[in-house]
Amino acid sequence: MQLNKEILEKFISPDNSNRESVQETISKLTSQILDFLTDASNYSPYPAFTRFTDPYFTIPDLPKKDVQLTESVKEILAHSMNAANPKYIGHMDSIPTLWSILGDYLASAINNNLLSLEMSPFLTQLEYSITKQFSTLFGLPDASGGILLSGGTLSNLQALIVARNEVLHTPNGNCFSLQKEPVIIASEHAHASIQKIAMLLGIGRENVVKVKTTQDAKMDIADLEYQVTNLLASGKQPFAIVATAGTTVSGTIDSLLDISALAKKYSLWVHIDAIYGGALIFSQKYTHLLAGIEHADSISFNPQKWLFVAKTCSMVLFRDFQNMVKSFQVAAPYMKAQPEFINLGEISIQGTKKAEVLKLWLSLTSIGKQGYEQLIDYNLHLTKIFTEELSKRTYLKVSSQPELNIVCFRGEPEYIGDHAYDQWNEQLQGYLLKNAGYFISLPTYKNNVWLRVVLLNPFFKKEHINVLFEHIDAFEKTYR
Ligand SMILES: *Cc1c(COP(=O)(O)O)cnc(C)c1O
Question: 244 CB under 6 A from ligand 1?
């Protein structure tokens, strides 16, 4: 049997027989992408929702020509969320650095597998080196290290699996022999992934005990200690405290020093979800906000958020890397054991894994630590200006004083009753999108509707803030 030539054309032939046509396809796609991204300011950050009914998505019986595929790229671009527009300030979704896009492309092209050293001889070493450097940047000791995972939820999951195995002495993960119900303690504003993780660990969502927060949205340390002692007295077994460095809604950083001291006092694991705020390690001016992170037993961090790396890219770091290996490793019999560079697939939730480290490393290399410092300081500078503008308006209030480049706020104009505040804010969000082209998000926070901006786009400028507030003021006037 021989393969149809038309099918072989769908691969890059290793004998140089289709280079020209491949090059043409790649150039065409590249042009389409660039046509869109270099003009992204002129496309709405939030395209109107179009319902695509089948057969649009139907898998064809016969192969399609490359030109037919590039036709649908137009459609894909036109109907996608457009975070490249600087007025997209609604979520933690950054525009990717050029080299993270290229790194993803390169990683797909060589298609190595981070499962094992023999399947990715260069890239496995790279992942070990990069995660080690991040461990050091976070102030963890020499014995620390980590791995990359495809998203923060997985990073939090692996940290808490190891925490459970270590603290509850369940090295093979069997919880059924435990006399007491295991509990995770986290702030009421901790990320929703902690609840999923409780389900995955088999401890149940009800065993994520939520600690109250203070006015400034930080975990209340007195309540934290109360919860710990209360759980112990009631015959439960807390094993980990999850502190957050940069909550998703308001970018708040818990008091990491106090929390780690308390965790030590009760011999609990302290996991720091620095998935968003961890980027501050690159800013000399602001890194002090992470004080105490160096005491963590584990840290999760997402370069896919504030390091502008294309999704997905996350990491989990452990204070004692060898201990993590001891408590988590499942050897793969079909892989040659690697004593120096343990096959990453044996010590990671994921098996086969894309070389997400490549786009991270290329981004870091092309921008440098100082470049990242500039980006982060710039975002924080603009957040100050934004917050100042907010405070000039008595009808607006912040949920808590912003610490990062996230501002959660809402209008509470006195001429409407507080029963109508939610509606007012919802309408303002729609008004800003329709009349000014700004996309800001509308989180529910403390049972109310709030507005939220994440000032992440490097092309977002002070002028954007001025124009945005002009529109907010105009809306406020029309509503009177
Ligand atoms: C985004 C986020 C997560 C989850 O990360 P994913 O990559 O979306 O799985 C967890 N914690 C915090 C604080 C986050 O902001």
Answer: yes
